[in-house]
Automatic annotation (TrEMBL), chain A:
<dbReference type="GO" id="GO:0006865">
    <property type="term" value="P:amino acid transport"/>
</dbReference>
<comment type="similarity">
    <text>Belongs to the binding-protein-dependent transport system permease family. LivHM subfamily.</text>
</comment>
<dbReference type="Pfam" id="PF02653">
    <property type="entry name" value="BPD_transp_2"/>
</dbReference>
<dbReference type="GO" id="GO:0005886">
    <property type="term" value="C:plasma membrane"/>
</dbReference>
<feature type="transmembrane region" description="Helical">
    <location>
        <begin position="461"/>
        <end position="485"/>
    </location>
</feature>
<feature type="transmembrane region" description="Helical">
    <location>
        <begin position="491"/>
        <end position="510"/>
    </location>
</feature>
<dbReference type="InterPro" id="IPR017779">
    <property type="entry name" value="ABC_UrtB_bac"/>
</dbReference>
<feature type="transmembrane region" description="Helical">
    <location>
        <begin position="269"/>
        <end position="287"/>
    </location>
</feature>
<dbReference type="InterPro" id="IPR016024">
    <property type="entry name" value="ARM-type_fold"/>
</dbReference>
From TrEMBL, chain B:
<feature type="transmembrane region" description="Helical">
    <location>
        <begin position="20"/>
        <end position="38"/>
    </location>
</feature>
<feature type="transmembrane region" description="Helical">
    <location>
        <begin position="299"/>
        <end position="323"/>
    </location>
</feature>
<keyword id="KW-1133">Transmembrane helix</keyword>
<feature type="transmembrane region" description="Helical">
    <location>
        <begin position="211"/>
        <end position="232"/>
    </location>
</feature>
<dbReference type="InterPro" id="IPR001851">
    <property type="entry name" value="ABC_transp_permease"/>
</dbReference>
<keyword id="KW-1003">Cell membrane</keyword>
<dbReference type="InterPro" id="IPR017778">
    <property type="entry name" value="ABC_transptr_urea_perm_UrtC"/>
</dbReference>
<feature type="transmembrane region" description="Helical">
    <location>
        <begin position="84"/>
        <end position="102"/>
    </location>
</feature>
<dbReference type="InterPro" id="IPR043428">
    <property type="entry name" value="LivM-like"/>
</dbReference>
Length: 526, 366
């Protein structure tokens, strides 16, 4: 007993000191327990504890040369004993800092995250929750639950719920596990699938009800993931379809009107894209403050340039080849070769860089499994606008009336006084101009190079074949259908086989409907 | 009205000066291999290996142009996919040539190098038997023929014609090009076939082999011309031109154009395949680039420049444009596409009957 007295006294003294100074407690803790201590503090962090943790983290705690004391380096660089605060002479550079190993480091991360949970900045709270749920520390559960009560933001609240449920999965209480499984099943986060898998396994989970719930939840998450994947494909399909639509719209108008294929139509896309490149460079050098607006300025420029080129083509070449559609095809191919080579000589054979304005970068996060990029969304909206304008132009203006009349019966329209030559020229300009606008849109999602348009002529003609000519609805259906089918086939078959399958489908399709989906009825036979 | 003119053109190709010119050209072509083999390289009469290969290549193109003229000039079907048939024939021959390399490849394996590179252990099923030249030739002719048969039957049955037909053929060759660019398709992907060593045991670069291949090409061209003339001047040929000029009327007369179109379409594709099979051993490479839509459209311009519906015109057109190309791409590489593009436009605008039509008009005016 005598023997133990000093020891007991020491212990009492020690624990008294511990109660007085978290710094000393942390400093004297066994290195293996230090991470546990920090984790314990995570839930009840206060000023002195924060300072103690900060001192450890910043490497300001040293063990003394004899190993019995721990010294703190103050902000002034002086050393003091952590137990009594007495200054100690010595040079910090010659001493060893207390070690910070990996488990301490991750405990530190969680410690900071816990304090960030109440941060006024929303993004900080979200990343703190992410860090906490990755630390998998069950002790954090009360903290997360209490934050859940106070949190106002619904998305942060949802994240807190998911994080606390993930921790609850490890709870010994089957009811809590069950509750957590239900919460997670609703969250549709793909990462939870791997968390739930062990609970569905009889080797690691004893409670049959929990197993059943987990199995169900995994199936639910898989199903919702499949749904989101499909939504994602449908979205990229619609975005591909809208690009195709911009390319095919002009083609459908001119093909319906003149019965000729303009092989240089793809080059109008390319010229539109280069127009936005030029406008971008002008803004960059003359008006960098308004750089984000360059895209809006590029639209009328691209339209005007391609409108004029289209009209010139019609007047100078295509007009002379009426009634000879195959020769027109070859002549316009010649034009496309010359345009490509001209652009190559002007701007170089390499792709040029067209930057996204800042309001088009980033995306709209719907769920963790589905993000819609802003540039694609903007293109879809843009195409809808162009489509509306085209519809108005074709259905509500005098020119549109003439275009439709000539499309349906050129000779009759001519006889009743429609200036068919002028209509042809303007319609050709309009079709080219729409392609030019399409080029501006393409410059935001892909590479801009001299061969940009070459890849689109086949696809956009397939749209025309599928949709038929003379009606916008046909082109829209054709473009969207091709775009979506393309994107749905792509993941399972690969892009190339998907394309070949679609081509085969189109060949079979025109067996049944040679005039496309939306054919104008007529009684003309040559 | 087109038919009458071009038919007369075909008949009038016979006048003496043209006959003499044709005989002279044939004599020169037949003499070229001999001059390559048996003259001193230093002498001015010597034909270098480069020239012989270049002319042999152009002769293969001429055969393709002839085949194109049969379907476009006479039947009015503008195919933008003849490059595909040509390339398929080339690939058929290439398969044999790859197998004939034997163990002399970089990897000293039974398999062609690119398969070793892809870590394949056995030949894919469609390579079986390709070590026999006869089977490879069957493939070179049969595969384009079969493809043309299936595609043509589907297209002609639903009466697809005009630009619709053209674009469908273009889509076909485009899709095939994408397919052949893939390594997994089993035809060497991007690089295609090259580094051939021998054919039937003879070294592929030996003068005698070159001369033989050249002679075979000349013979095929002459045979194709002869068969073509016979065909277009037969009753069958008249129906073809009728299809081109007034298909509906022909149908009202009780003909079903389907089988006429299908026959000439498949025959043309097979001829292209054969030309491709002769082309590959001469130039020593085949890759998916041959299937690019641009190549196929170029074939159409050879025909248009020479003069459609005359058989001899496309042969001249192919010769003229390809000779111009090999000169241009060396002298002014940047302006070749301008020249070609301008040629497309000028021919369609000002020379609807091609160079041959120009000759004829000149003669008529005189």
């Amino acid at each position: 007993m005598q023997l133990f007295k000093p020891l007991l006294l020491l212990l009492l003294l020690y624990s008294g000191l511990v109660a007085a100074s978290p710094l000393a407690e942390l400093a004297h803790a066994d290195p293996a327990d230090r991470a546990g201590l920090i984790t314990q503090w995570t839930v009840q962090a206060d000023g002195p504890r924060r300072q103690a943790v900060a001192a450890l983290e910043e490497g300001r705690l040293f063990s003394s040369t004899d190993g019995n004391h721990v010294l703190l380096q103050g902000v002034d660089g002086k050393l003091s004993d952590v137990d009594n605060g007495q200054p100690v002479a010595g040079d910090a550079a010659s001493l060893d800092t207390l070690p910070v190993n990996n488990s301490v480091r991750s405990a530190l991360e969680a410690f900071h995250a816990a304090s960030d949970l109440a941060d006024p900045e929303r993004s900080k709270r979200l990343s703190a929750i992410q860090a906490l749920q990755d630390s998998a520390n069950p002790g954090l559960l009360p903290l997360l639950l209490s934050r859940q009560q106070q949190e106002q933001d619904s998305q942060v609240k949802q994240a807190l719920l998911v994080a606390s449920s993930r921790l609850q999965l490890a709870s010994p209480d089957a009811a809590q596990r069950l509750q957590a499984i239900h919460t997670l099943a609703d969250s549709a986060d793909p990462a939870t699938q791997t968390l739930l898998a062990p609970l569905a396994d009889s080797a690691s989970e004893s409670d049959a009800r929990v197993r059943a719930a987990a199995t169900q939840a995994v199936a639910d998450i898989k199903a919702s993931q499949w749904r989101y994947n499909m939504l994602g494909y449908a979205f990229s399909g619609i975005s591909l379809g809208s690009v195709l639509l911009l390319a095919a719209l002009g083609l459908a108008i001119t093909y319906g009107l003149l019965g000729v294929i303009n092989m240089a139509h793809g080059e109008m896309l390319m010229i539109g894209a280069y127009a936005s490149y030029v406008v971008q460079n002008l803004f960059r050098s003359w008006w960098p403050g308004a750089f984000d607006a360059y895209l809006l300025a590029a639209l009328p420029v691209a339209f005007a340039v391609t409108f004029v080129i289209g009209m010139a083509l019609e007047r100078l070449i295509i007009r002379h080849l009426y009634g000879r559609p195959l020769e027109t095809l070859l002549a316009t191919w010649g034009i496309s070769l010359m345009l490509i080579q001209a652009v190559r000589m002007l701007f170089g054979a390499q792709n040029v860089e067209v930057a996204n304005p800042s309001w088009l970068s980033g995306g709209w996060v719907i769920t963790p499994a589905l993000t819609l990029p802003y540039n694609r969304l903007a293109i879809i909206a843009f195409v809808a606008g162009v489509l509306l304008l085209t519809w108005l132009a074709l259905n509500k203006t005098r020119l549109g009336l003439f275009v439709r009349a000539v499309t349906q019966n050129r000779r009759m329209a001519d006889s009743v006084g429609v200036p068919t030559g002028k209509v042809d020229m303007l319609a050709f300009g309009l079709g080219s101009g729409i392609a030019g606008l399409g080029g501006v849109a393409l410059s935001q999602i892909g590479n801009v190079g001299p061969e940009l348009g070459q890849g689109y002529i086949v696809d956009s003609f397939m749209v025309v074949v599928l949709g038929g000519v003379g009606q916008l609805a046909g082109t829209v259906t054709g473009a969207m259908g091709l775009g979506i089918v393309n994107k749905i086939l792509e993941p399972s078959l690969g892009a190339v086989l998907g394309k070949i399958l679609i081509l085969g489908f189109i060949i079979l399709f025109i067996q049944k409907r040679p005039q496309g989906l939306f054919a104008l009825k007529g009684r003309v036979l040559d | 009205m087109q038919s009458a003119l071009s038919l007369r053109l075909a008949h009038r190709i016979g006048p003496l000066p043209l006959k003499l010119a044709g005989a002279a050209a044939l004599a020169v072509l037949l003499a070229m291999p001999a001059l390559h083999l048996w003259t001193d390289p230093a002498s001015s009469l010597h034909v270098s290996a480069y020239t012989l290969t270049l002319v042999g290549k152009i002769l293969c193109y001429a055969i393709v142009a002839l085949a194109m003229d049969l379907v476009w000039g006479y039947t009015g079907l503008l195919s933008l996919g003849h490059g595909l048939f040509f390339a398929l024939g080339g690939y058929g021959m290439g398969m044999y040539l790859m197998r004939a390399i034997g163990h002399d490849g970089n990897y000293q394996s039974d398999l062609p190098d690119f398969m070793v590179f892809l870590d394949w252990k056995t030949l894919p099923w469609f390579w079986q038997g390709s070590e026999h030249l006869a089977w490879a030739l069957c493939l070179a002719v049969g595969v384009p023929g079969l493809l043309a048969l299936v595609f043509g039957w589907l297209a002609f049955r639903s009466r697809i014609k005009g630009v619709y037909f053209s674009i469908m053929t273009q889509a076909l060759t485009y899709a095939a090009m994408l397919l052949f660019f893939r390594n997994e398709t089993g035809f060497g992907g991007n690089n295609g076939f090259t580094d051939f060593k021998r054919i039937l045991g003879y070294g592929i670069a030996e003068p005698a082999t070159r001369a033989t291949l050249f002679l075979l090409t000349v013979l095929l061209l002459v045979a194709a011309l002869a068969a073509g003339f016979w065909l277009v001047n037969s009753k069958f040929g008249r129906i073809l031109t009728a299809i081109r000029d007034a298909e509906s009327r022909l149908m009202f007369c009780g003909y079903n154009p389907l089988y006429y179109k299908l026959f000439i379409w498949v025959a043309s594709a097979m001829l292209c395949g054969l030309a491709g099979a002769l082309y590959v051993p001469q130039v020593g490479i085949i890759n998916p680039g041959e299937m690019s839509p641009a190549n196929s459209i170029e074939i159409a311009i050879w025909v248009a420049v020479g003069g459609r519906g005359s058989l001899i015109g496309p042969v001249l057109g192919a010769g003229f444009i390809n000779a111009a190309k090999s000169w241009f791409t060396v002298a002014f590489p940047e302006y070749w596409l301008f020249f070609l593009g301008a040629l497309f436009i000028a021919t369609t605008l000002f020379l609807p009957r091609g160079l041959l039509g120009l000759l004829r008009r000149h003669k008529e005016n005189a």
